[in-house]
Write a structure and sequence with these properties.
This is T9SS type A sorting domain-containing protein. The protein has about 270 residues and is mainly beta. It contains one helix and 21 strands. The strands form five sheets. Strands 1, 4, 7, 9, 12 and 14 form a six-stranded antiparallel sheet that branches. It has a six-stranded antiparallel sheet with strand order 2-3-8-13-10-11, with no helix packed on it. A four-stranded antiparallel sheet has the order 18-17-20-21, with no helix packed on it.
């Protein structure tokens, strides 16, 4: 009995600790031609919008794991459709993106061409952020095997790594026709995306981000409701009306600390920096 209890506790602790941990997918254990990959227990789908994207495993040594060459990555295999665009999307967990590396070139893999890269984060089909990188791309193999770091902790001077999404879309423009992605670094979020059979209960879903926040908050819910914001002592500090879908709320006037947002269906903890 004690052994069973101990194992159960360990299992729960492992599950809890897996949330909020940074994981980097290097694709080395994925199958060539696959349109999905699994990392940290989460299944991600590779969705091709323009051009055909999947796992590339036929050219050893042409990837980049962040510190050295590796063998597998996502690419569009020189497919000529333009502008190349694909998404990394999951239906099993929400996530945040820290950084990833990209090889961006002409179809003949010439890096010395001009182009731009647009990175878009979405949640339930709603755009949560979008930025276009226009400079700073690798123009030779150099020390990174031709890959450029796309760092969402400082993309165009902004931090997007704390925004919860379920889809990351990548679109190349200009002369960038070949697109490769490797060393995908992300964080599992504790909120679960509901499966199709569970959508009837979506009114119970309350998603609040970014968390922690400096003040601005996006509150997504499946049902219109009154939301009350409590401090750690249980005192109501603010009441707002929220509609079904996405709502913008600001708590900049509140001091740093822990707060709770409560609707008729759910309560969520928020940290104010």
């Amino acid at each position: 009995m004690k052994s069973t209890t101990f194992l159960t506790i360990c299992s729960l602790l492992t599950s809890i600790l897996s949330f909020g941990q940074t994981s980097t997918e290097q694709f080395e254990t994925e199958s060539h031609g696959s349109t999905s990959f699994t990392d940290n227990g989460v299944i991600f789908n590779i969705i091709s919008h323009v051009s055909v994207f999947d796992i590339q495993g036929n050219y050893p040594g042409t990837g980049w794991n962040g510190t050295a060459n590796d063998n597998r990555y996502i690419d569009n295999s020189n497919d000529a459709q333009f502008p190349p665009s694909f998404s990394i999307k999951t239906t099993s967990n929400l996530f945040k993106v820290n950084r990833f590396w990209m090889y961006l070139s002409a179809l003949n893999l010439d890096l010395n061409v001009a182009g731009t890269l647009t990175v878009t984060g979405k949640l339930s089909g709603i755009t949560k952020f979008t930025q276009t990188k226009t400079t700073g791309f690798a123009t030779s193999l150099g020390t990174t095997n031709g890959y450029t770091l796309i760092d969402l902790t400082n993309l165009n001077g902004q931090n997007y790594s704390n925004i919860v999404i379920d889809e990351l879309q990548i679109t190349a423009n200009g002369a960038f026709r070949y697109v490769g992605l490797d060393a995908f670094s992300w964080v599992k979020d504790s909120n679960i995306v509901l499966g199709t059979s569970e959508t009837k209960n979506i009114q119970k879903s309350l998603i609040v981000y970014p968390n922690p926040t400096n003040g601005p908050l996006s509150i997504t819910t499946g049902k219109a409701s009154e939301a009350k914001i409590y401090n750690a002592e249980g005192k109501v500090l603010k009441t707002v009306q929220i509609q079904k879908g996405n709502n913008e709320v600001n708590i900049s006037e509140l001091p740093a600390g822990i707060y709770y947002i409560k609707t008729s269906a759910e309560t969520t903890k928020v940290i104010k920096n």
